[in-house]
Amino acid sequence: MIRAENEQWMAGAWPRIALVLALLAGVVYLRSLSLPLISDDYPHIKLAREYGPVSGWPELASDALYRSRATALVLTYWTEKIFGLNPLAFHLSSLGLHIVNVWLVFALGFWKVIGWRHSAVAAGYFAVHEGLQEAVIWHAAIHELIHFSFALLFVHLWLRWMASGSRRLYAGAVIMFLLALLSKETAVVLVPVALLLAAIDRRDLRRAAVQVLPLAAVAAGYFLLILGARATHHHFTDAGTFSLSAPFWITWRNSTGRLFWIWGWLGVAALVALRPAGRGRLLALGGAWAVLCLLPYSFLTYMPRVPSRHTYLAAMGMALVVSAAFWRVSERFCRRRWLGFALLAAMFIHNCAYVWIVKQRQYRERAEPTESVVRFAAGVDGPVYIHCFPYWTESAIDAVDLRLGKTAYAMAGDKALSEIPDRSNVFCWNPKEHFGPEAGAPE
User: Fold this and answer.
1) What is the mean pLDDT of residues 412-440?
2) What is the reported pLDDT for 162?
């Protein structure tokens, strides 16, 4: 499966390329390493304390929602156990996983459908694409990164199994599939992905279909277990995170359009206009990968599009399209090498600047309410009463508990407020709204 002309080139070039890819990802997320944890991270860390150790695995197995996040909870548990409640350690664990995933995209160059030139550029764009920032910066979304790791390892082993027929490689692919299912429910999409790879590779599709049947059976059983627990499953009972009756086609369409914006659509336009010969399979792979991997997320009911953190797996398909377009434009217009580098630099600067400037500010703003309630709790004696909080109040309670070891309570309504004789222990994110115009924000 490895092209002979590329094998010699890769022998000397791959360490340098891998280093450059790691540096690209590191530069984009360098500023985010200084961010504090945000509100949603604290419930995730608290759950990891409960479910992460081996003693908590039986209870984790009985939890219909979080057994599909098992790998993330175990990783978070060990991250805190080794490094403590250190935001930098959590950010570095996410960034490290992202870099590994970038390398896995690059390593797909062994497959003749992609090749090393295309995998290198695709991995570079995947490393810096601003649409992935939520999955990388928000530690509570680390299951997206882990899910991608196991999904790409499955792809690598599946492709090599198709080429060799090795039972060990097939067994390895099955193990990666199971680990992906323990990372995110949407790993069921790997069943049609496996058939897609066989079709794109022009292998014996019937043989691949037979071998994918055990995976399909496991995926069906996995889905039925989730469906059978819908009475207690949080995503079915929290006012509609997920529904099989959702208008998924609208969310699917909107999400695909957003995923490809802006460089993806420019790439599609360039490829349509220039009609590159010999890249049909690569374009089919990238496009089909993107739309297939978005489909399971499109049954959301609280948004008309998939949140950016859920596009992490699908984004690899878009990156392949961008890579195909880059090489076609370079061949047609950029005969001088520096012009090609200028185009790559433009993509990097655009994505990096957006993460550094726009998203950095947004994450600091998102973290500030939690930091504020922790500062407030540290300055008062006794329990803390949280009267108003812009996000889920339980996350603020968990933050006070994890950071300070103090007890905090959620208060509902002015009647509950009137029952507290001393308001010095009452936190309110918008005190002027609840306590009157003379009140100030808690220190």
Assistant:
1) 61
2) 94
